[in-house]
Model the fold of this input.
Amino acid sequence: MGKILHREFVYLWYYFTLQFSQIAGYWAAGILIGSFISVFAKDSLHRLLGKMDETKVGLAGIIPACLLGIASPLCMYGTVPLAASFQRQGIREDWLAAFMMSSILLNPQLIIYSAALGVKMLWIRIISCFLCGVCAGLLVHIFYHGKNFFDFGSMQERESHDTDPNPVMRYLKNVWRNIRATGPYFLAGILLSALFQRYVPRQTVTAVFGGNEAWGVLMAATIGVPLYACGGGTIPLLREWLWQGMSSGSACAFMLTGPATKITNLGALKICMGIRRFLLYLAYVMGFSFLCGCLVNVFF
Done:
């Protein structure tokens, strides 16, 4: 019995260290670049959205709002108060919807992390998240034109943690906060992927998520709801699933529903939505991810 346990430990340690050596560089780069943007560029990015109303670009402003949402390093609990301040400044609801949707789905750190999945999946993630934000803005424009979609109440923008007068120390403290926030999930993701690699037959993953079947896309979209905890933690799992036969469309669906329904994001969104609009949001996320995943399977 002892020899069997020792053998299994050796196998798992091998798979764990192999995955870690292949992915850790992307995780570290994501933290370093994301912290740099958070400390030195965050305020400039957010001021750009605040000044967009002066440009009179109309509905087309959904596009730069999505791009700024993707570039924003804030978590959703930081984005909601920021969006509340934008609403008080008179920023359009469709722009806010596009900004918040894309901010939920993607950020600079997650873009770097996702490079570990390969160039094709990286671009699929970026484009699908961008389009999800654009469509969210368009739907709010169509069905809530002239009305408020969000209800931020008296919410105030959160106080920044990056207050150290020394810019180097501000950056280092931000890096350390990101390591503490994402590190445990990243290591847990590598451990889970090692367990999958050791104990789950490749044909099982292919049968559930593989091929061009709509069922695989639906399954991936569904498990993204409870399983997704942190972007860095899911990259090792997705990498392993893709290697074992998961289709690109199924991975796309998982990458959309995961962050969009992460419990912390849902908690923040519930603050600024009534139950009806909250349910509409969930239906939109599930429907868009399923449709997008099916289209990815057709064309990629």
About this structure: The mean pLDDT is 85.
